[in-house]
Design a protein that fits this description.
It comes from Scomber scombrus. This is U11/U12 small nuclear ribonucleoprotein 25 kDa protein. It holds the Pfam family Ubiquitin_4. Keywords: Ribonucleoprotein. By secondary structure, the chain is of the alpha+beta class. It has two domains: about 45 residues; about 90 residues, Ubiquitin-like (UB roll) (Roll). It has six helices and five strands, in the order ααααββααβββ. It has a five-stranded mixed β-sheet with strand order 2-1-5-3-4. The chain starts with a helix and ends in a 5-residue tail after the last strand.
Length: about 180
């Protein structure tokens, strides 16, 4: 009987032992999916503040590029896209002169309307306030009732009209002027 068992072990019986050993290795070895989950957990282990720091460092290096050097450190994707559009000639800068002498460089697409310019001014001011603090809310309805945008003595009153129809080109200056009261 012993001889029969040893012969089985040497012939077919040995293969089953090897199969069992292979099964044990397979069962004890971590799955590729488990390894991926562990890697994801490691990635998630970074706190949000550290991820933000890493992102801001990378962004700061990116903004040092000559094309993007005019942008602030806390740049938004919208500002980066605008700067790239300027470089490719798809956008233009309209310099808006405020009553206090400050000039706001407003970037709009080439075929922008007066309404697009007003929206861009609003966005510019919102970003400026976020970065510097200051007034929390501006009533833009009041602003547009009280002030006009003027280019070479002509009021930009029709919101649907294109800037190029008024003759406004890249780097032209538009004045932010108080409306005169009608009596």
């Amino acid at each position: 009987m012993m001889e029969e068992q040893s012969q089985e072990d040497m012939s077919g019986g040995g293969q089953t032992e090897r199969d069992e050993e292979v099964k044990k290795e397979i069962l004890t070895a971590p799955d590729a999916e488990e390894e991926e989950e562990e890697e994801e957990e490691d990635e998630e282990a970074l706190p949000h503040s550290e991820i933000l720091d890493i992102f801001e460092e990378g962004l700061a290096r990116l903004v040092q590029d000559p094309l993007l050097c005019d942008l602030p450190i806390q740049v938004t994707l919208e500002e980066v896209n605008s700067q790239i559009a300027l470089e490719y000639g798809q956008a233009m800068t309209v310099r808006v002169l405020k009553a206090d002498g400050e000039i706001m460089p407003i970037v709009v697409v080439q075929n922008a309307s007066v309404l697009d310019l007003k929206k861009a001014i609003r966005r510019f001011m919102e970003l400026k306030q976020q970065r510097e603090g200051g007034v929390k809310h501006i009533s833009w309805r009041y602003v547009w009732r009280t002030y006009n945008l003027v280019f070479q003595g002509e009021k930009l009153e029709d919101d649907k009209m294109r800037l190029k129809d008024y003759g406004i080109r890249n780097r032209d200056e538009v004045t932010f002027m108080k409306r005169l009261r009608k009596k």
